[in-house]
Structures are given as C-alpha cells and as structure tokens.
Amino acid sequence: MSELHGHCMCGAVTVSMTPARHSLGACHCDMCRRWTSSMLMTLPASPGYAALGPVKTYVSSDWAERAFCSECGSALWYRITAPGKMHGQTQMAAGLFDNAGESTLSLELYIDKKPEGYAFAGPQRKMTEADVMAAFRPSAEGDNQ
C-alpha cells in the first residue's frame, strides 16, 4: 500500500504512514466522542509511521494513549499500550489525510454508545462495548484475550 502524508489543522504536526489496510474504523465510545465531539474515524497504521512537530500524548486508559497537536488540538492517533499481541497498534485519525476517503468504512466500535442522531449505511462490522472488551482489553495476565 502506498504511503499517506497528512497534517493537523494548523500544519505544525506532519504525519507519514502506510495503512495496514485501506479500511476506515469509527469509534463511538464515550472518550472518542468527548475527544472529537463525534466519533473518531481512523485508519490502521503499519509499523514505521512518523510524526513530526509538537505532539502531546495523553494516557486515556490503562491500555491506551491518544496523541494530539499541542498547538491546535487536532486528534492524531490512538495507540494500544498494554502488553500483549496488540501492543503498539495505532489507529491514525483519518482527517489528517486528504485521501483517507478512498478507504471503505469496515468497522464501527461501541455501536451501542452511538447517539441516535446519525448512522452509517453499509455492511460494516459493528461491535458493542462488550464485544470490544472481549476482543481488545488486556486480561489479568497482561495479554489480550
């Protein structure tokens, strides 16, 4: 897949990444909705992405962190920090890239948290909070279930 180049709203942070797959994800969890005032739309990043500029990270849970531009506040990525097979997996904010719309929405997370006011059409996979916790949350031993 070809490398994508993007930037935050003010241009202070530039990012380069190769998508792990050309598929968009939408997360409707409470944190993503507070962070973006909507759902967080992401592209999965392959290892080796780069971000230059005033990046700040925030540990948002015991298993993940979020990054944003310290100048304009634009969402940059969500990364799994918990030990296990998903450690380091990063979902880059789709809005950073002009050509992210060429990807297809394939997954909605926390569908049971989605506000009633909007809905996506299509056959994408939909996971509830319970589905997400079962699939991604680290187990007591520190590995993902």
The whole-angstrom Rg is 15 Å
Strand order of the largest sheet: 6-7-8-9-4-3-10-11
Shape: globular
Count of DSSP helices? 2
- Corresponding CATH architecture: Beta Complex
Structural class: mainly beta
Strand content: 35-45%
| Residue-averaged pLDDT | 91
What number of domains? 1
Sequence of secondary-structure elements:
EEEHEEEEEEEEH
Distance between the termini: 29 Å
Annotate the secondary structure layout.
Elements: E1 4-7, E2 14-17, E3 23-27, H1 30-36, E4 40-45, E5 50-52, E6 55-59, E7 64-69, E8 75-80, E9 90-93, E10 104-109, E11 125-127, H2 129-136
Parallel strand pairs: 3-10, 10-11
Antiparallel strand pairs: 1-2, 2-5, 3-4, 4-9, 6-7, 7-8, 8-9
How is this structure best described in words?
It is built from two helices and eleven strands. With 145 residues, the chain is mainly beta. The protein has a single domain (4-136), classed as Metal Binding Protein, Guanine Nucleotide Exchange Factor, Chain A, CATH 2.170.150. Strands 6-7-8-9-4-3-10-11 form an eight-stranded mixed beta sheet. A three-stranded antiparallel beta sheet has the order 1-2-5, with no helix packed on it. Strand 7 and strand 8 form a beta hairpin. It is globular, with a radius of gyration of 15 Å. The model has no long low-confidence stretch (mean pLDDT 91).
